[in-house]
Protein: serine-type D-Ala-D-Ala carboxypeptidase
Organism: Romboutsia ilealis
Amino acid sequence: MKKIFSFLLTLLITFLPVFNTNNLSFADSEPNLTAEYAVLMDYETGQVLYNKNGHSKLYPASTTKAWTAYVVLKHVNDLNQVVEIKDLPIVDGSSMYLKEGEAFTVKELLDALLIHSSNDVAMVLAKYVGGSVENFVNMMNDEAKSIGAENTHFNNPHGLPDENHYTTAYDMALMARKAMDNKIFRDIVNTKSVKYPATEAYPYERYFENTNQFLTSRSKMNYKGQEIDIKYDVVDGIKTGYTDAAGKCLLSTGVKNNIRVISAVFKSTVDDLYLDSRTLLDYGFDNFYVKEIVDKDDFIKNKKVFLSKEKKLIYQPETNYSVALSNNSNAGDYSIKTKLDNIKLPIKEGDKVGTLEVYKNKKLEKSIDLVAKNDVTSIFAFFKENKLLYNVLKIILLIIILVFIVFIIRKVNRKKKEKKNSTYSKNRRRRKY
């Protein structure tokens, strides 16, 4: 009996660690993708959640048009402006089949650009917005650099093969994130189809279905051992691409489990593009969550300001700050510290008045400007605003100071004289006796 008990105890001790939940990982292993380049980015924070050759040079193909559309939206205030089609350039690939003499609004052309991936539309919009295609491409590059896409150089607005037209998966994810900030852009890339009535120059209705099969496909694919629809209801954008040099490319985004992620997959294959992208999207949805560390509206503070009309300065962080964390990580590792600048009046609403520092495990991770929520002015501000009165008061103050100095000097001299006379009198009395 003792031998049996000892045997069972030995087994228990040996295999107990296997059942210890502290050694279990609830996160899926990193995705194994066919694509040569891929990045998964959290939309809210911009954090990279997965990276496969994310900073290596690649050709973006028609995913370029996402940035073309962003630049158009940034520089055209009225999307109802009508663009007359004339002097059409010759361009290969997918086309809206525009004809000389037709006219479309900027919005209608943007629909064709993003939904059907029309190359002729890209050229028309570039010339309309930039004055020339070359100037518009410079605008694309400038805008890309301004958001940190440092390894990108566009050489056309459509993405057809060009050795000087290149980017990285990280840069494209960054640009997709920026473009998705625009509501009109979001609405277009989530549109399943678009149609245009016949015109005199083109007497047929144009009907285009979104090239993003996550939105429109009626086919299936094998995913994790099961046949599932390619169409994925959580996906709401953004852009496809393909050339022989670039391979199959897809920028995609969606929201699930309260997190939006952006997938950038490049140089995949016909069979694996949507499998790679679905795998990457689900990896983000299933393994990460977003935690708000600083809510600027919950962090409104004030400080008394001596000799000010308003009595106090009200301030808050300029922006919120959130982080994407793996499901088994702890948000309690974060702490914050407030550092106010020396107060110098006047202060205008929006002025920087300090810094909010965010620490992770006592290491500085982020600095956020603290900005004023109100104007703070000196009680003497009226005098400064009235220059004549201000100058008169300065003169009067100067005279008072001078008079005071003269008074002090005279008083000091008088005391010296009195002291001297007193000493002289004492000496005379001594000699007399």
